[in-house]
Amino acid sequence: MDLLERYKNVQNELPEKYMALPVYGAGLENVGDEAGRPIYLPINSIGPDELLIRHDTDSICFSDIKVINQGQEHPRIYQNMAEDPVVLGHELTMTIVKVGDNLKDQYKPGQRFTIQADIYEDGVSYAYGYYYQGAMSQYGVVDKRVLNSDGGNNNLLPLDDTTGYAEGALAEPWACVVAAYGLDYRNTFQTDGTVWFIGANDDREFVIDVGFVKKAKPKKILVTNIPEKLTDRIKSLANELGIQFDHVSDINSLDDEVVDDIILFGHDAVIIATASQKLKSHGVFCIMTDQKIPEPVPVDLGRVHYQRWLYVADSGLDISKAYQNGLKRNTLKPGGKVLFAGAGGPIGRMHVQRAIEFQNPPATIVCTDVSDLRLEDLRSTYSNQAQQRGVETIFSNPMQKESYQETIGHIMDDGGFDDIVVLAPVPRLIEEITGYVAKDGLVNVFAGIARGTTVNIDFHKIVHEGVRYIGHSGSALEDMQMTLDKIQSKELNAGRTIAAVGSLHYGKEGLQAVKDALYPGKVVIFNHIKEFPITPLEDFKDKLPSVYALFDNGEWTNAAEEEFLRMMLA
């Protein structure tokens, strides 16, 4: 049995100590020991309800860089990092090496998994790679919180024998991309929620359908500055359905994040901006007006991204129609035109690949990035596949203003973009590109724009042209399983996004590379190989030619991975 087979079958003797790369605070200078290298820790003992697992690979995520940048101020860090350092790594593959006595009927050494890192017990987050020691370590312990988290979920997802170590680690980032094109939003009020009706210079005879309210009956109704006649109708409806009713004299008197639904009768940019702050997560803001909204409205786009706010509108009188027509689609328009703004990074590449591989793909894909090198890499990687699928691809650098404006001009002459996917969290850029959205277009805010970041949005497009803004962060267990199914059935080639690999000895350099956007794709760490610097795939041609020979047009493959591990396993 060769070294790789022994590794797969967990037949190597456990070491007394293992490597881990701790983070003691903000800044890369606080990663690892004094030289920035991993430290050595004793192998963990396990209890009867625990698993000792081997971290095989770690795909470095930009979320890891956020911890490096923010240190103790990061919202997911609860412990004192200086005394109890964080070990990052939540995009991973793992193998069971020891099983606690109470789990031996369910698990056995050699089983491989990836993980859904958002772990909860009684509503409290115990995220993998934040609270739990992550995959920037060679070994770790999994306990009942992972195996039976809130809702009875097991956050371990099994890998079949055909799935590579690297591609298995990419299930998590790919799941975020897959999930971005299947988002669900309410088309009713929030059941048992709070609805707030606000008046703003529109005294038309609005329709509040009793059946619509009954379908998802709120617990409380609030009114502010509503004409007396409409107030009486709303109050009568509340009394009829047993809903609490109250007046709010001033918009600013409410606390933030206490309302599920806001209905604004009329238009007022200040009211929209101010009242929006009162929305809870998954809140809906409905604007009823037949008038033009002349000035842009500052919107906290971070809340659209992280808290899934949705703005809907209608120029008619029936509120239920505004909700029912709130979001007409949640994926790219088949045969449409899509702009991927900031497409050159690892996640952008995934979006582009996903769009090309859709069953009914868009007709035109425009990719923008400020790096010509990244755009050329995108072109060389995906243009042939796009052509085979009948998809036109255009690659444009906004810094080259003349050619960029020519590209945008052609699209605008044809009505604009049906979809705009925001992959760069730059407010000025977002304000510009959202002006290019077509009638009934969809703006998907995928980039991790921080909460509190306001962007001036043209609400005339929302109210009168059917434009909608949606946003997304992370993925659910179901998204990961669906994505893993696609990977394991070979419907999705996750490994195409790998740009460089290295050993855990060079984990800090891997973090630096991701922070500096050194590579256009993902950096994957192999935790149990000999010292191997972070190496771009093109360099394998000279460094490890037998591995390079098994690449597919310069792209990572499972066959190449096996050759790599046979040569490099420690």
Would you mind describing this structure in some detail?
The protein has 570 residues and is an alpha/beta fold. The protein folds into three domains: 232 residues, Quinone Oxidoreductase, Chain A, domain 1 (Alpha-Beta Complex), CATH 3.90.180; 131 residues, NAD(P)-binding Rossmann-like Domain (Rossmann fold); 135 residues, 3-Layer(aba) Sandwich (Rossmann fold), CATH 3.40.50. The strands form seven sheets. Strands 4, 6, 7, 10, 11, 26, 27 and 28 form an eight-stranded mixed beta sheet that branches. A six-stranded parallel beta sheet has the order 14-13-12-15-16-18, with helices on both faces. A six-stranded parallel beta sheet has the order 21-20-19-22-23-25, sandwiched between helices. The longest helix has 17 residues. The protein is globular. The mean pLDDT is 94.
